[in-house]
Design brief:
Blueprint lengths: L4 H14 L11 H12 L11 E6 L5 H8 L4 E7 L2 H10 L4 E4 L11 E6 L11 H16 L2 E10 L15 H11 L4 E4 L6 E7 L4
Parallel strand pairs: 1-2, 1-4, 2-3, 4-5
Antiparallel strand pairs: 5-7, 6-7
InterPro entries: Methyltransf_12 (IPR013217), SAM-dependent_MTases_sf (IPR029063)
Protein name: Methyltransferase type 12 domain-containing protein
Length: about 210
C-alpha cells in the first residue's frame, strides 16, 4: 500500500472512535475547527467572483465545511471529495443535495473544474511519513489540483515558528513554500497567520483572478 494512505487510515480510526465530530476528523478543539472553515473560505474575499462560485472541498471528512457554508448563507455550489469511502458514506448519510466524490487524486483524475478548491487539514499531519515523503505527497497533490481550479486554492500547513514540535505534524518553511508556488503554480499568493493557531493558511490564485 502506498505509504500516504496511512494518513487517511489514521483519520478513519478517529472517525471509528469518535464518530461524526471534531474529534472524528482529529481536530482537538471545536471552536478552532469552525475558525478554520471561515479562514479557508476567506479566499472568496480576494477574488472577483465570490458569489455563485463552485467549490471543491478536498478531504471533506464528515462534511463539516458544508454545514458551515449552509449555516452562514454562503452562495456556493459545493462538492465534497475524500479518498476514504467511510467518510464519503458519512457525508452521503447526512446530505442528499450535494455531489460526493470518492477519489484518490494521485491515482485518478478529477473530470470537472471548480472556481475554488479548499484543502482544510489535508497537509497538517504527516503521521509516519518522513519529511521527504510528505513533501512529495503535498507537492504532487497541489500540482495535480492546479489544473482543476479556475480561480484559486486554499490550504493550511503547520508554521515552523512554534514553541515545540510534534513529529507527526507537517511544518513548512515560508521560503520553501513560496519558491515552490512561484515555480510550479503561481506567484500570486497570500500567507495568512493572523488567526491565532500554530498554522498558516495559503491562498494561491491563477494569474487572471
Amino acid at each position: 500500500m502506498d505509504k500516504y494512505k496511512n494518513i487517511y487510515k489514521h483519520y478513519e480510526k478517529c472517525l471509528e472512535e469518535n464518530g461524526d465530530s471534531h474529534l472524528g476528523v482529529d481536530w482537538p478543539n471545536y471552536d478552532d475547527m469552525i475558525r478554520r472553515y471561515k479562514i479557508m473560505l476567506n479566499i472568496l474575499k480576494y477574488s472577483n467572483k465570490n458569489q455563485n462560485s463552485s467549490i471543491l472541498d478536498f478531504g471533506a471528512g464528515c462534511g463539516g465545511m458544508y454545514d458551515f457554508i449552509k449555516s452562514n448563507n454562503y452562495n456556493l455550489n459545493y462538492t465534497a471529495l475524500d479518498i476514504s469511502q467511510k467518510f464519503c458514506n458519512t457525508i452521503k448519510k447526512k446530505f442528499n443535495d450535494i455531489d460526493v466524490l470518492n477519489i484518490d487524486i494521485l491515482k485518478q483524475e478529477i473530470n470537472s473544474n471548480y472556481d475554488f478548491i479548499i484543502l482544510n487539514g489535508v497537509f497538517t499531519e504527516k503521521r509516519d511519513l518522513n519529511d521527504t515523503e510528505m513533501w512529495d505527497f503535498f507537492t504532487n497533490i497541489l500540482k495535480k489540483l492546479w489544473k482543476n481550479t479556475n480561480i484559486g486554492i486554499s490550504f493550511n500547513v503547520m508554521t515552523p515558528i512554534v514553541d515545540w514540535k510534534d513529529d507527526k505534524l507537517f511544518y513548512l518553511s515560508y521560503d520553501i513554500l513560496g519558491k515552490f508556488l512561484k515555480e510550479n503554480l503561481s506567484r500570486n499568493y497570500i500567507f495568512n497567520q493572523s488567526y491565532g493557531l500554530w498554522e498558516y493558511t495559503v491562498y494561491v490564485f491563477k494569474d487572471s483572478h
